[in-house]
Amino acid sequence: MATLRVALQIKSAPMRTSRRVEESAIGELATWSVGECFSSLTDSSAVASRLQRCCGMSDIADELRERTFRYMLRILAFCRHLPDTWANREVGRQLLRAGMGVAGNYWSACRGRSDKEFIAKLGVAVDETEESVLWLTAIVQSGIREDTQTKDLLGEGKELRAILSKSHKTARENRLRKAREARARNRLTK
After folding, report:
1. Tell me: the pLDDT tens digits for 93-122?
2. Is the C-alpha dihedral spanning 10, 13, 19, 21 positive or negative?
3. To 10 degrees, what angle do helices 148-189 and 59-80 make?
């Protein structure tokens, strides 16, 4: 059976992967036979499963990417409907920047080229989430808007803050553990 070489470009892989893992994944996907390509493409779960196995894509990371994106869209819609006063425009502008920064920085972290870059971008995403929670809290407590939509958005912001903070802490701990293990290996080889 003829082999189809596929030029694959993974535009939005949700997790950081090493170049070797990406190359092996692309190599595996590029050598699918023509029959496998057509039968697999009709079954999206097969493609997703193969991509997940090859590229280390995580359903959890994918879900979090979607969740941060939906949060950004909800913030955008929310800011459009704030009462039109000078103070509200300023609060809305700050909330909009922070809310959009959550998704932007988390997505950027997922495409980080190194552990260091991933941790740094994830830290910025945590900061942006914290700031969006601050502005939403200010909106509720100042009486600008106290409806269920505002409180739901505030709750989502707090949940994202907790998730991203824990992820950031885990990533830092893993990086420190890897560094300690590398130092221990170096001492053993000397």
Report:
1. 999 999 999 999 999 999 989 999 999 999
2. negative
3. 140
Reported as a single tens digit per residue, the pLDDT across 46-98 is 444 444 444 444 788 889 999 999 999 999 999 999 999 999 999 999 999 99
CA angle 46-50-56, nearest 5°?
140
Query: What is the structure's pLDDT at 59?
Result: 81
Side-chain-side CA neighbours of 127 within 13 Å: the count stands at 8
Burial of 95 (0-12, 13-18, 19+ CB in 10 A): buried
**Structural domains of the chain sorted by starting position, each given as residue range(s) with its CATH number in brackets:** 1-57 (no CATH), 59-189 (1.20.1440.60)
Instruction: Name the percent of the chain lying above pLDDT 90.
Output: 62
**CB distance 103 to 68 below 8 Å:** yes
Closest Cα partner for 61 from 21, 18, 13, 101? 13
Give the whole-angstrom CA distance, residue 117 versus residue 6: 30
Instruction: Tell me the backbone φ, ψ of residue 119, rounded to 5 degrees.
Output: -65, -40
Q: Up-side HSE of residue 44: CA atoms within 13 Å toward CB?
A: 0
Residue carrying structure tokens 């922070």: 98
